[in-house]
Design a protein that fits this description.
eight-stranded antiparallel sheet, about 150 residues, 3 helices, single chain, alpha+beta
């Protein structure tokens, strides 16, 4: 059976996952890339990144698509697709956004030596964020969800 997810189910999926995909388009090129993220439970996702192609493209065209899925098997899955607007955060907004991301993602870091590839303080020797980290918010404007269950 194919069907549509209701808003509560959509919120549950967005809130329970840690990896989604951002789709962006600029200069005649489309790019889809996975990101670790946190959902604020209402209308935004937050993520962090290094400078790179996705950030360049979202600065050029802040309209993005975001996708998250849960696949149990090929006949049992749930998928959420949302559209929204990329916003690069600075100052206190960036600090607050990064705190949300850290609270959500730290439980997934399993080894003593495992650290993200950029920008996050994980030890007393690294009190400050490295300057290259970019913290962003995607204000979601439209959300839809589908499922298949057999």
């Amino acid at each position: 059976m194919l069907g549509e997810l209701n808003r509560s189910q959509i919120d549950d999926i967005l809130g329970s996952q840690a990896v989604g995909r951002i789709g962006c388009h600029a200069s005649g090129r489309t790019y889809v890339v996975p990101v670790t993220y946190v959902y604020d439970g209402a209308s935004s996702i937050y993520f962090h990144s290094n400078e790179g192609l996705k950030i360049q493209m979202m600065r050029a065209n802040p309209s993005i698509c975001f996708e998250v899925d849960v696949v149990f098997d090929l006949a049992n899955w749930q998928s959420v697709i949302a559209w929204g607007r990329f916003e690069e955060l600075t100052g206190e907004a960036a600090t607050n956004g990064l705190e949300l991301v850290m609270k959500r993602l730290l439980p997934f870091i399993t080894g003593e030596t495992t650290t993200p590839s950029h920008g996050l303080p994980f030890s007393p020797h690294q009190e400050k964020l490295r300057t290259e980290v970019i913290v962003a918010r995607v204000a979601l404007t439209e959300i839809t969800g589908r499922f298949e269950k057999r």
